Amino acid sequence: MIRNHRVACQWAIPQAGRNQIPCHLQDWVKTWNQLSWRIGRPQIWWAEAREWLSGADRQLTHITNCQRKVRNSVLHGPPLSLTSNARQPLHFATPLLARLQHFEISCVKDRAENITEAIRQPAYIVRAVRGPIQSFIHTEEVGALCLLGAAAVALVWINSPWSASYVDFWHIKISFDIHIFAISEDLRHLVNEGLMAIFFFVVGLEIKRELVHGELSTFRKAILPVVAAVGGMSAPAVIYVLFNYSGDYLVGWGIPMATDIAFAVGILALLGRRVPTELRVFLLGLAIVDDLGAIGVIAAFYTEAINWTNLGLGVGFFVAIALCVRFGIRSIGFYLVMCVVMWQFFLESGIHATLAGVLIAAIVPSKPDLLRKDYAAAVKDLLHDFRLAMANKNEEKAQTIVAQIEKLSRETEEPLERLEATIHPWVSFVVLPLFALANAAIVFDADILSAALESQVTFGIALGLLIGNPVGILGLTWLAVKLGLAELPTGVGWRHILGVGFLAGIGFTVAIFIAGIAFKDPSLGDQAKIGIFGASLLAGAVGYLLLRTV
């Protein structure tokens, strides 16, 4: 039937009449006839596939060598992420599998040539670094919009005629008992203690990635964002203490130290090409160190009475998980159960349960299970078998080989990066919006607003975020540069640093989280939230305008 279709196509454009076709249609006719000729000859596809596979061995070795060069230059990110002419990113191992499955024969060759050309260019390092950073920033930008939308929904809901349903919803009790442990908490508590543990797990992965591959991997690269983050944490805390140096209010000194990386990076992404990539990298490094400081503050200063028995059991499960990782166990279900049990023991110990997520992130392997050279050798043999299967038209065996290549490709990925890439979108689009929906609600009535405007807590937090962050970041960065400890990144000026300082004053998520731990009095919690909201809005607007006009 296919051959008859080809004949019909040729009959519609007979050879004798082709000379009468206008010139601008002759190329179209030629292409149409070539296509109809191929439709009737599927053996041509197999021949082209065999021709490509004969060169795939050489291309695979070359791609591996190119990847190693790029990998040594990137700050962080997927095993390989280069953008070819601003089109779809190329991830190692993914193109091979996709092309074997779909027989898009020319794509891998073309992209291998693009990689070779990228290696020859002096700017290939910049492109290698920019890819993962832009991917991360895009996730943060959209996630920030989701976070802002969830906060707006919470504010509208709590100030609507249905405010009682908001309170009732978040006080719904959830119970779970499997004899090993039992959980009986309301929804808000589960979000703050459970889902936020996943958030801090991702934060821990980001910190470890930076320590292994990124801005914190060497002293020279780490010194500037570390010094800036220290200034951005210490100055806001000092300003808060100046307003609340005595009484029950002093416990909130850790609130203005926090930076919301989602909003800060999201606003920076809105500026597009107005800001250099080096400034984005600086902000990411600063925010990572800031998150690390916030984790330390929560662990050291916001821990209640400790139940040493449960803490010992939690630490025991942590050690068991670490040993399993060390001995190469890779069962996701096993680790999931172990981590949930560990989280429960930390929850019952009095230490904030979110710290369990950080500890688990610290032991996630940062090296792949399969080295690239071993992968290349294994795939070379599989490609030989694949050629034989294609020659014999044994599609079942060919599909089995494709599955084996897919499995080997996953083993070349670092578990740390694979986990971060998998979980980070869930944190940005689910966990953080749910946290904002559960905790961002403030009843705007005259009494609450009047109390907030007269509160030392509100002013201490607001001025700490709005003034302390830019002053601390700019001041210590200037001092580090003047002392010769560090130098500003290429293309970054002091106005850029000041703008980043204001963006670091956006303290939405983690600041509200610490406020919920610090203040048990709901009225103080509302005053803290008003200070956080007001200062974050002003800091974000000022930072955006400063960087936009540089």
Can you walk me through this structure?
With 550 residues, the chain is an all-alpha fold. Among the domains are: 1-41, no CATH class; 125-303 and 352-367 and 414-548, Na+/H+ antiporter like fold (Up-down Bundle), CATH 1.20.1530.10. The protein contains 22 helices and 4 strands. The strands form 2 sheets. The chain has a two-stranded antiparallel sheet with strand order 1-2. The termini are far apart.
In short:
The protein has 550 residues and is mainly α.
List keywords for this structure.
550 residues, mainly alpha, Na+/H+ antiporter like fold, two-stranded antiparallel ribbon, disordered N terminus
SSE arrangement:
Blueprint: H1 2-12, H2 23-39, H3 43-71, E1 82-83, E2 89-90, H4 94-102, H5 105-120, H6 124-158, H7 163-170, E3 173-177, E4 182-186, H8 187-212, H9 219-243, H10 261-270, H11 277-301, H12 308-326, H13 332-349, H14 354-362, H15 372-391, H16 395-411, H17 415-439, H18 446-453, H19 456-482, H20 494-503, H21 509-518, H22 522-548
Antiparallel strand pairs: 1-2, 3-4
Helix pairs in contact: 1-2, 3-5, 3-15, 4-16, 6-10, 6-17, 8-11, 8-14, 8-17, 9-11, 9-19, 10-11, 12-13, 13-14, 15-16, 17-21, 18-22, 19-20, 19-22, 20-22, 21-22
